[in-house]
Design a protein that fits this description.
Layout (H helix, E strand, L loop, with lengths): L9 E7 L3 H11 L7 E7 L6 H8 L4 E4 L6 H14 L4 E6 L2 E3 L3 H11 L3 E10 L5 E3 L2 E4 L4 E4 L9 E2 L7 E5 H7 L11 H11 L3 E12 L8 H18 L2 H24 L4 H14 L4
Parallel strand pairs: 1-2, 1-4, 2-3, 6-12
Antiparallel strand pairs: 4-11, 5-12, 6-7, 6-11, 8-9, 10-12
Helix pairs in contact: 1-2, 6-7, 7-9, 8-9
Length: 291
C-alpha cells in the first residue's frame, strides 16, 4: 500500500487595517484556492470601517485576531504568525489585504518550496491589478543609494533566486522562524520584509520567486504622501543600520548627512511642503532613537 502523501499545513495571514471592499475581494479569491490544507487568518489592526463585521458575515471560517490598536505591519503579522505556529503550521504566507490570487498560486509555491530544502522564503510573480504589468518579480538593495528596488521584468520561466521578497505576498517555511525569529518590530511600516529576507539569507536560506504562481496587487495609492515618506525614510535608516557592512556604513554616514542637508535646503525653499517636514522628522526620530 502506498504511503499517504504529506501535505504541508499552511496558514495565510491577511493583515487588515480598514481594508473595506479590497479585503472582501482578497478573501473571496482565497475561497477558490485549490491547495488541500490551508487556513486563513485576518489579523486586524483596529479597523474602524466595519470590515471585520463583513468578514464575520461573509467568511465565517476565517480566523479573526483583533490586535486592539494599529501596531504596524511587523507586530500585527507576528501575532498571526505565533498563532499559526502554535497550531502546527509548516508554512506561513503573509498576504496584503489589497491582493487577489490565482486558484493554483499556493500549490505552485509549495511545490517549489518542497523541492529545495535550502529555500526559506518564496514569492509569486505579482502583477499590477488584473493586467500583465509586473509589480514585483524580485527585489534587490542598492547599498550606495539606500534604496530597495522592485524588479518588474520576468527573468526566467522557472523559479529563480532574488535578493529579497516583498511582504505583499511572502511564503515562509517554519524553519526560517525557528532559526531567525519573527519580523523585527523595530519597523512599524516598510522595510521589514527586506530586513527579514536579508536575515534569512545570512542564516543560509535562499529567497525564491516562482513565476508560475500569480498574485494581483490593487495598491490603494502610489502617491508618496508625507506620512508614507516618514515611514519609508525612518524604516530605511533602521534597515541600513541593522544590515549594512562596516565599510558601507561609513559611506552611509556621510551620504545621510548629504541627504539631511538637501532636505534642509528644500524646507527653506519650499516651507509649505509638508513632505519635507515629515522627512526631517524621520531623521530626527532616528537620531533620537524614537522607533
Amino acid at each position: 500500500m502506498d504511503e499517504k502523501k504529506f501535505i504541508p499545513k499552511v496558514f495565510i495571514i491577511v493583515l487588515n487595517h480598514n481594508g473595506g471592499e479590497l479585503l472582501g475581494n482578497c478573501l473571496q479569491s482565497l475561497r477558490h484556492v485549490l491547495y488541500a490544507d490551508f487556513s486563513v487568518i485576518v489579523a486586524d489592526n483596529a479597523s474602524a470601517d466595519n470590515s471585520l463585521e463583513m468578514v464575520r458575515q461573509n467568511f465565517p471560517t476565517t480566523i479573526i485576531i483583533e490586535n486592539g490598536k494599529n501596531i504596524g505591519f511587523a507586530a500585527g503579522n507576528n501575532i498571526g504568525i505565533r498563532y499559526a505556529l502554535a497550531h502546527s503550521a509548516d508554512y506561513v504566507l503573509l498576504l496584503n489585504q489589497d491582493t487577489e490570487v490565482e486558484p493554483n498560486f499556493l500549490d505552485k509555491l509549495i511545490e517549489a518550496a518542497e523541492k529545495k530544502p535550502t529555500v526559506g522564503i518564496l514569492s509569486p510573480l505579482i502583477f499590477w491589478q488584473r493586467t500583465e504589468k509586473i509589480w514585483f518579480s524580485g527585489g534587490r538593495i542598492n547599498w550606495l543609494t539606500m534604496k530597495s528596488i522592485h524588479d518588474k521584468i520576468l527573468f526566467r520561466q522557472v523559479p529563480y533566486e532574488t535578493g529579497f521578497i516583498t511582504g505583499c505576498s511572502m511564503l515562509i517555511k517554519k524553519a526560517v522562524f525557528d532559526r531567525i525569529g519573527y519580523l523585527s518590530e523595530k519597523y512599524f511600516l516598510y522595510w521589514e520584509d527586506a530586513d527579514f529576507s536579508c536575515k534569512a539569507k545570512k542564516a543560509g536560506f535562499r529567497n525564491l520567486v516562482v513565476p508560475e504562481s500569480r498574485v494581483y496587487h490593487f495598491e490603494k495609492s502610489t502617491l508618496a504622501t508625507g506620512k508614507k515618506l516618514y515611514w519609508l525614510v525612518l524604516s530605511g535608516l533602521i534597515f541600513f543600520k541593522e544590515n549594512a557592512s562596516f565599510p558601507i556604513n561609513i559611506w552611509i554616514f556621510f551620504y545621510t548627512k548629504l541627504r539631511i542637508a538637501k532636505n534642509s535646503l528644500d524646507r527653506f525653499v519650499y516651507p509649505e511642503d509638508n513632505n519635507k517636514q515629515e522627512v526631517q522628522k524621520a531623521y530626527e526620530d532616528f537620531k533620537n532613537g524614537k522607533y
